[in-house]
Design a protein that fits this description.
The N terminus is likely disordered. This protein has eight helices and twelve strands. This is Molybdate ABC transporter, periplasmic molybdate-binding protein.
Length: 252
């Protein structure tokens, strides 16, 4: 039976300042990058407080739909931005792709697990423990993973051994702790941990392109600070270098 484990990692950086604030709802895989970007922006704009709400794009989109106080939505896939456009929480003209990523398989450093992204390779027999990934019907990383596993005809062979979590960072944590022998995450997440190693990369033709779109919410379009910060993320050369440093690529 498929196991589902939910581990919330939503985070907020909240100041008591009376300055203007920008509430950015963003995919967990952007946590380190956006924290660094927000610190730089706040240093340059000391009257502005950037509030980061980080978690699975699916969960954050539902919060925005429910009326959460939000200015910018930065998703790990196109589906959840399109969902909010349909729900009239984002205007289509406001949303555009900005980043791309890669889907990789990780294991704890101490394990030696073989991996070949080929249909004739039995990955399920390459290790005895469980494999972890995001919720495969909602969390972007899990959705990409499901596509890859299905295209390789591996999904059925892992029946009863897949642990689904509420975000890609939760998946990373499970593998770091050795609670899962392998995990499917983004390359950028794997690179931040010294406790795991990348054992393979899924070719891009096995899953939909991993695209990160950013959009002002309808509330954000009325917030001059949010408009300014959104422009900063999209156009500032220093920000571009930070994304590159953390392993992201730019959408073309």
């Amino acid at each position: 039976m498929k196991k589902t484990i939910l581990v919330s990692i939503a985070l907020c950086s909240i100041s008591s300042s009376n300055a203007g604030s920008v509430k950015l709802f963003a995919a967990a895989s952007l946590s380190n990058t956006l924290t660094e970007i927000a610190q730089i922006y706040e240093k340059q704009n000391p009257k502005t407080n950037i509030v980061l709400i980080l978690g699975a794009s699916s969960s954050l989109a539902k919060q925005v739909e429910a009326g959460a106080n939000s200015d910018i939505f930065f998703s790990a896939d196109l589906d959840w931005v399109n969902y909010l456009i349909k729900k009239k929480k984002i205007q289509a003209h406001s949303a555009h792709p900005i980043l791309t990523n890669e889907l990789v398989v990780i294991s704890p450093q101490y394990l030696n697990v073989k991996f070949k992204p080929q249909a004739d390779f039995s990955f399920a027999k390459a290790f005895k423990g469980r494999m972890c990934t995001g919720l495969m019907d909602s969390v972007p990383a899990g959705k990409y993973a499901k596509h890859a596993l299905m295209n390789l005809k591996w999904l059925e062979s892992f029946k009863g051994r897949i642990v689904e979590t509420d975000s890609v960072r939760s998946t990373l944590t499970f593998v770091e702790r050795g609670e899962c022998d392998t995990g499917i995450v983004y390359k950028t997440d794997a690179l931040i941990s010294k406790k795991v190693k990348i054992i393979g990369i899924f070719p891009r033709n096995l899953h939909p392109a991993i695209i990160y779109p950013i959009a002002l919410t309808k509330q954000g379009e009325k917030n001059s600070e949010a408009i300014h910060f959104n422009k900063f993320i999209n156009t500032n050369p220093q920000v571009k270098n930070i994304f590159i440093k953390h392993g992201f690529h730019f959408y073309k």
